[in-house]
Amino acid sequence: MQNNSGSKSYLFTIVLVAVLGGLLFGYDTAVISGAERGLQAFFMGAQDFNYTSFLHGITSSSALLGCIIGSAISGLMAGRFGRKKSLFVAGVCFFLSAAGSYYPEFLFFEKGVPTVSLWVVFNLYRVLGGIGVGMASAICPMYIAEVAPADKRGTLVSWNQFAIIFGQLVVYFVNFVILGDHIAPKMEVMAEGISRIVNLDELAADGNWSVSLGWRLMFVSECVPAGLFTILILLVPETPRYLAMAGKERQALEVLERINGSSRAKKILEEIESTVVEEKEKLLTYGWLVIFIGIMLSVFQQAVGINAVLYYAPRIFESMGMGNPMMQTVMMGVINITFTLVAILTVEKIGRKPLLIVGSLGMALGALGVTLSAAIPTLPGIIGVLSIMIYSACFMFSWGPICWVLISEIFPNTIRGAAVAIAVAFQWISNFIVSSTFVPMYAWSPSFTYGLYAVICVLAAVFVWKLVPETKGKTLEQMTDLWKKSIK
Q1: Which of 2, 302, 427, 477 has the smallest C-beta neighbourhood within 10 Å, fewest atoms?
Q2: 319 has a pLDDT exceeding 50
Q3: Where are the alpha helices (H) located in 44-115, listed in sequence order?
């Protein structure tokens, strides 16, 4: 008897495994937040170099370099080795980075003795983790989009964004549990450079547990989800789109039948085969506009300033005179999760474009509220806090998940790997630019900073309205046809 409906549980299972890559994305990028003070104190105990704030800035952001590299090579990896094998490589990068960051002295250095060489090796491990993040950020949404039926694709890809935010919250909680009754090293202690590090027992006795061991445990905690992801990704199938492009039609049909049922699977395979006649096409085969739209979706996702808010929320809330800035930060985390769920529940009903446009305008309103709060000191601080939360909430139901949805589905099959890699690389570059310029801009003029973000949000809404096609309900093969027609 033929299966004509497909297995929802099978689809859910393989998407859940892919979504673990998103969780690792969030986990790896956020783990440094709990570990960086202990890490800074550790390297300030070095005798062969002066560990300055500038060097600590490099340590805190070195993973970002790996993110750019990983996203840039993701297209080559996904196209040459497949989506599944590439995600396995990303998982290995996550695991080795977590283990290496925990014990960077392995084989070559004396444990617990900070040196400039150890600092370089530690940062290389963090770059390796960033490569995993960059690859996962591009390939996880691609994998989900290529296995998901058209009517479920937006919802399932949106779960990847939920997993990223959830991964960040998980690691905040894990760091909190690891720290326990211990306290992070005080700034004045670090300013003195801490007593020269001799051994772990002496440090522990001196009450510097977080300097000797705490930051290590935070990094190694990632080995658990990384190991789980690396093993489970071996158990899921390759995507039918990649299998068809690799000439493995029988295996592609088997996967499609399990997901969509026998009758639909054959029709979908015919559509896939009609778009992969050529195993490889040049990047601009379908014109420059589709590549430009993909790049600008990535640029706008970061240029609206969201990471400046997420990374520096405690600093912002403290400047607004709020009593406990960490409490507002936790509240914002809950809001982020809640409104990401809004996107998941509405993306297939409302569509991609309406959510992006409404979200952009809502973010502009929130940024304007922060601008006014900064420009008019007599306004109650709560106005600024609420404005930031509106800003963040609007991002979470729009640009946060929907950008990933569009990037995973907007490109034609034969250039998707390379095009997604380029778009995601621009996303990480934009992330770096926004994150590195926020602090000096905010110090110079908070009102100018958020006024600029408000203008960019409006420009993002206009861009989506004028140029971005609606992809709701369309198969990936229909998107290929759309771009073919646009260049005729």
Answers
A1: 2
A2: yes
A3: 53-81, 83-102
CA 206: distance to chain centroid? 38
Residue type, 248: K
Residues 6+ apart with CB under 8 A from 378: none
Cβ proximity of 382 and 283 under 8 Å: no
Distance CA 70, CA 65 (A): 9
Phi, psi at 195, each rounded to 5°: -60, 145
Distance CA 179, CA 66 (A): 27
Residues 6+ apart with CB under 8 A from 487: 286, 287
Give residue for tokens 């202690």. 189
pLDDT tens-place string over residues 268-292: 888 777 766 544 567 776 778 888 9
Cα–Cα dist 90/8, whole Å: 27
Largest distance between two CA atoms of the chain = 75
Straight-line distance from the first to the last Cα atom of the chain, in angstroms, rounded to the nearest whole number = 45
What is the rounded CA–CA span in Å between residue 357 and residue 459? 10
Residue 114: both structure tokens together? 């900070």
Q: Which residue has the tokens 């840039």?
A: 72
pLDDT tens-digit series, residues 46-103? 888 888 877 877 787 788 889 889 988 888 898 889 999 999 999 999 999 999 998 8
- What is the DSSP annotation of 195-256? SPP--HHHHHHTT-HIIIIIHHHHHHTTHHHHHHHHHHGGGSPPPHHHHHHTT-HHHHHHHH
- Residue where the block lists tokens 């300030």: 44
pLDDT tens, residue by residue, 292-309: 999 999 999 989 988 766
Rounded Cα distance, 456 and 21, in Å? 30
The two structure tokens encoding residue 62: 């070195």
What is the pLDDT, as a whole number, of residue 199? Answer: 43
* 3-class DSSP state of 276: coil
Output the CA–CA distances (angstroms, integers) from residue 364 to 28, 158, 169, 237, 392, in the order listed. Answer: 30, 23, 26, 42, 11
Q: Minimal CA–CA distance to 241: which of 386, 440, 428, 416?
A: 416
- Rounded to 5°, the CA angle 422-252-295 comes to 15
In whole angstroms, how far apart are CA 426 and each of 27, 310, 345?
21, 19, 28
For residues 380-400, average pLDDT: 84
CA 355, 359, 360 angle in degrees (round to 5)?
120
Across the chain, mean pLDDT equals: 80
3-state secondary structure of 323: coil
Distance CA 185, CA 40 (A): 9
Gyration radius of the chain's alpha carbons: 23
